[in-house]
Amino acid sequence: MARGAKRARALIACATGALALxxxxxxxxxxxxxxxxxxxxxxxxxxxxQLRTQASAAQREVRALDTRLVEATRRREETEVAAAAARxxxxxxxxxxxxxxxxxxxxxxxxxxxxxxxxxTERRVEPRxxxxxxxxxxxxxxxxxxxxxxxxxxxxALRDEDTITSEQSVLADAQAxxxxxxxxxxxxxxxxxxxxxxxAREATASERRVRQLAAEARSLRELAQRVQRASARRxxxxxxxxxxxxPAGWVAPAQGQxxxxxxxxxxxxxxxxxxxxxxxxGAQIVSPAAGEVAYAGSFRSYGNVLxxxxxxxxxLVLTGVDxxxxxxxxxxxxxxxxxxxxxxxxxxxxxxVEVRRGDQPVDPGRWLSxxxxxxxxxxxxx
Length: 382
Known about the structure:
The chain is α+β, with helices and mostly antiparallel strands. The protein folds into 2 domains: 25-215, Helix Hairpins (Orthogonal Bundle); 223-375, Glucose Permease (Domain IIA). Helices cover 58% and strands 14% of the residues. The strands form 2 sheets. Strands 1, 2, 4, 5, 6, 8, 10, 11 and 12 form a 9-stranded mixed β-sheet that branches. Strands 3-9-7 form a 3-stranded antiparallel β-sheet, with no helix packed on it. α1 runs antiparallel to α2 (127-215). The protein is rod-shaped.
């Protein structure tokens, strides 16, 4: 009988140990799954950020190539205008050479005729022959002067022809070089645009994967727990506070009036794990401390959600933000603008502020009150 009881107790102990081991294994498996999901999310966010950076660089390169292509086209048009002008000048110069040559030939022929006529006058003396001799002697100096002028003009025209021909050769080489450059730019432009499109598509896919990882969370609380890193991974920049104390050096994310305090219940719902602050329209939202963007985007029915992992192992959860200015994985400084409230609301917009450390929410009321935020009548600020 005693042995049976002892055996029963041993079996119960074994069963209890096995159950504890099973539960511990399941809990450890759950933690590993959540940790893996967080690692996957951060890896995808980092990859998306890198792809976006590369896509932006490709876009800048496309703009630079577009500018170069426009400049090359302008230079090509200038060389075409210069080449057309050179052709016109060459045609005019060649016409001038032809005209001067013909005039020179006619003048030489006329002078030779006058000399021959004067020679014949020496054999017979008559009034007509005497006049021819006088004219021939008078035309000699004039012809020589005109001949020299025409010779100089012809030589100048020939030199201009050589100069214009050389200029045309240079312009032709320049046009060929510009055409080659434009071809290379067009090719690089097509490659850069293709790269930009591919990088943007890959970045979009990575960002979609980040959103899918976030979609695995069923609530804002679970989302914050998923994206928050262990406090040991970031050294605290202030003295180590208690688990429920927000560092005194934090700045307020926005100025306004607290309309709903921490722990308040509304319509029998769960207790609020943060506070609601009524801000001015278009108010800037800043990071209270240095940290990293863990989540930035829409989440279920909460609208835009911004989660910052801050020094000391804290996570700041903000909802109600109209515009988010930072991306997942980006490092932020204390006081840096991370978002903006809406400017078109018919009433003052409201910002939900939740602070978590590990798995536990922290009452932000005292911290916000110390930063100048007042509580609405009937609301305890902290």
